Amino acid sequence: MAESRDYSEPLYEIEALVRQAGNYVRASDDLRPRVLETARAERRERRAQRWLWQAAFSVVLLGMLAAAMGQRREVTAARQPGAALETSQVCAREEAAAATGRDVTWELVDAFTKLRQRHAALLRLAL
User: Fold this and answer.
1) Which domain does 111 fall in, by range?
2) Of 25, 62, 114, 118, which residue has the fewest beta carbons closer than 10 angstroms?
3) 125: in domain
4) How many domains does the chain have?
């Protein structure tokens, strides 16, 4: 056994105990497998946390893009002349033409065809 010395400072006592215990400390046979398994478990946990953060970031990003696209559609729809305005203009022309004896039925058909095409385009954008 190691000799024990009487030191007055507490650090020397601790060092002496560590030196004495140095010959008695032995790693168990299953130490390495336990350490490896613990490291693997921690790595899996970090990987799962990273995946969750990436998924959350993706959801937030997709939400922001969807909101931006919705606002863009509203702005685009607001820029186009209103269908009611165009139809009322055609109706006003029809009334004026009726007073002069002209037929504007085909203008009305063209206005509704344009309106239908615009609605179809908006529906395609929405899908």
Assistant:
1) 80-127
2) 25
3) yes
4) 1
Q: At what angle do helices 83-100 and 105-126 cross, to 10 degrees?
A: 170
The span from the CA of 39 to the CA of 56, in Å, is 26
| CB 114 within 8 Å of CB 86 | yes
**Residue 39 resides in a domain:** no
CA-CA distance, 56 to 69, in Å (whole number)?
Answer: 20
CA angle 68, 70, 76 (to 5 degrees): 100
Specify whether the CB–CB gap between 124 and 73 falls below 8 A. no
The pLDDT tens digits of the residues spanning 3-46 come to 555 555 677 888 888 888 777 767 788 888 899 999 999 999 99
- Stated pTM of the model: 0.38
Residue 79 in this model has a pLDDT that exceeds 80: no
